[in-house]
Amino acid sequence: MIEINQDFDAGNIEVVSCNDPADIRLQIRQDAQSDFYQWFYFQLSGARHSHCTIRILNGKGAAYPDGFNNYRVLYSYDQEEWLRHDTQLQDGVLAFKFTPEADSVYFAYFVPYSMDRHQSLIDAAAQAPHCSHQLLGQSLDGQNLDLLVLAEPSAETGSARKNCWIIARQHPGETMAEWWMEGCIEKLLDRGDALTKSLLKKCIIYLVPNMNPDGSRRGHLRTNARGRNLNREWAEPSMEFSPEVYLVKKAMAASGVDFLLDVHGDESLPYCFIAGTEGLNDWNESRQAQLDFYRHTLAELNADFQTQKGYPPKPRGSANLSMSTAQTAHHYGCLAMTLEMPFKDTTATPDEKYGWSTARSKRLAHSCLEAMNHSLESEGPSA
């Protein structure tokens, strides 16, 4: 008997009909207290060697319906290797034909990053002598909000070293952001690595690997347990509606911020790119030079990253101060940027088998750290 299951960490799908393998009809569940939806993750069982046609009926109403154009779904038999499979989008219905080679197969919008894996990442990092774990508080669902601080033992907060912050997964369905963070943490835990040594001489690094644990576990695309888009809460966060942002802003106030990178994924655009804070009232040539230096350095370091395509810069004076980077750059006068990675693939460096992948996300993290190191040591623009 064919069964569809989504009752697990980050699972999201609703079954309309699965009686006939040739006509499996599904729809994506909305984020709690929100109209946002796009993330899906489910298990198909009992269909080995059956010619299945799977239709997700409500693609037209998704948060980013263009994200399903030229989209290739991810599937896995072991939840370790995730491969790409073609889909078709017609009249707002996302459909694909698939013949499972085993009794169980998983499908997901992007490779999931479970809260169990998150906890293992935190536990491993906290054992390193140059990494400390701070529990900032709890989410609305009672999950931990974790901060990792990496510094050489002689480095004290408030010293001459810069305070560099990196946050990820404000939008929980953008799981590539935490895969990026895993690569970042793995690199920084290696005290023998030349890049890590160089960075820790210059800065104290503050990492929030998962800003939205509730949305992550619930299988949300964009919001927390109260339906709040955390990247629109930075002007006036509250413990009632957005404790995640409130607690991180409080920790930032204690340390100060000299650099911020906020890591995301973009559903529609097939590029890796960085968005800056050009819309600030006090944007000037010096701040533009800092942004350009980082972006162009990163493009030289990693072929997956480019500077030609992305979000158009906001006109000066039109910054949205409810967003993390604009609020932080406005308050601290620092370089603050949003890194975007694709759900699909990069057009210039495509991978037919995996598309944009966890491995590429992690490699990009290494390059971003190297670009940060160059920015910190440059005699010209710096963070």
Radius of gyration, CA atoms, in whole angstroms: 21 Å
Helix fraction by DSSP (H/I, runs of at least 4) = 25-40%
Q: What CATH architecture label of the largest domain applies? A: 3-Layer(aba) Sandwich
Strand fraction: 15-25%
Task: Based on Cα principal axes, name the global outline.
Answer: globular
What is the CATH C level class of the largest domain, in words? Answer: Alpha Beta
Judged by helices, strands and strand pairing, the structural class is: alpha+beta
List SSEs in N-to-C order: EEEEEEEEEEHEEEHHEHHEEHHEH
Please summarize the sheet with the most strands: 7 strands, mixed
CATH superfamily of the largest domain: Zn peptidases
Predict the CATH topology of the largest domain.
Aminopeptidase
State the helix count: 8
Strand order of the largest sheet: 11-12-14-13-15-17-16
**Tally of individual domains:** 2
Average pLDDT value?
A: 96
First CA to last CA: what distance?
Answer: 58 Å
- Record field, number of beta strands: 17
Low-confidence stretches: 379-383
Describe the overall structure:
The radius of gyration is 21 Å and the shape is globular. The protein has 2 domains: 106 residues, Immunoglobulin-like, CATH 2.60.40.3120; 263 residues, 3-Layer(aba) Sandwich (Aminopeptidase), CATH 3.40.630.10. The longest helix is centred in the last third of the chain and has 20 residues. It has a 7-stranded mixed beta sheet with strand order 11-12-14-13-15-17-16, with helices on both faces. It has 8 helices and 17 strands. The chain has 383 residues and is of the alpha+beta class. Strand 11 and strand 12 form a beta hairpin. It starts with a strand and ends in a 6-residue tail after the last helix. The C terminus is likely disordered.
